[in-house]
């Protein structure tokens, strides 16, 4: 990615900006989502503490990502 062009993330389907911080957050979100899905398969319930904890962590990371994107877009 050069020249400030946007691309689409193959993992999330979201637009990627030329920021390594945004890419890092996208990777963290993807990893947490995979962990949460795997935990659900292992626990066979969304109500397990492990799945709930991962869901909360994922929510926080998504919120962080959205805030970062909003502030990054305002700077552009």
Model regions low in confidence, pLDDT < 50 over at least 5 residues = 1-5
Helix content: 55-70%
- Biggest sheet details: 2 strands, antiparallel
Mean pLDDT level: 80
**DSSP helix count?**
2
Strand order of the largest sheet: 1-2
What is the CA–CA distance across the termini?
A: 16 Å
How many E-type strands? 2
Shape: elongated
How big is the Rg?
A: 15 Å
- Helix and strand content put the structural class at mainly alpha
What is this structure, in a nutshell?
The chain is mostly helical and 76 residues long. The chain has helices at residues 20-43, 49-75, and strands at 7-8, 15-16. It is built from two helices and two strands.
Topology at a glance:
Blueprint: E1 7-8, E2 15-16, H1 20-43, H2 49-75
Antiparallel strand pairs: 1-2
Helix pairs in contact: 1-2
Protein name: Aspartyl-phosphate phosphatase Spo0E family protein
InterPro entries: HLH_DNA-bd_sf, Spo0E-like, Spo0E-like_sf
Pfam family, one: SpoOE-like
């Amino acid at each position: 990615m050069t020249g400030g062009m946007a691309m689409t993330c193959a993992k999330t389907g979201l637009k990627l900006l030329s920021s390594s911080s945004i890419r890092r957050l996208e990777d963290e979100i993807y990893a947490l989502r995979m962990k949460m899905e795997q935990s659900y398969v292992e626990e066979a319930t969304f109500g397990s503490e492990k799945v709930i904890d991962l869901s909360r962590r994922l929510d926080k990371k998504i919120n962080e990502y959205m805030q970062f994107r909003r502030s990054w877009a305002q700077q552009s």
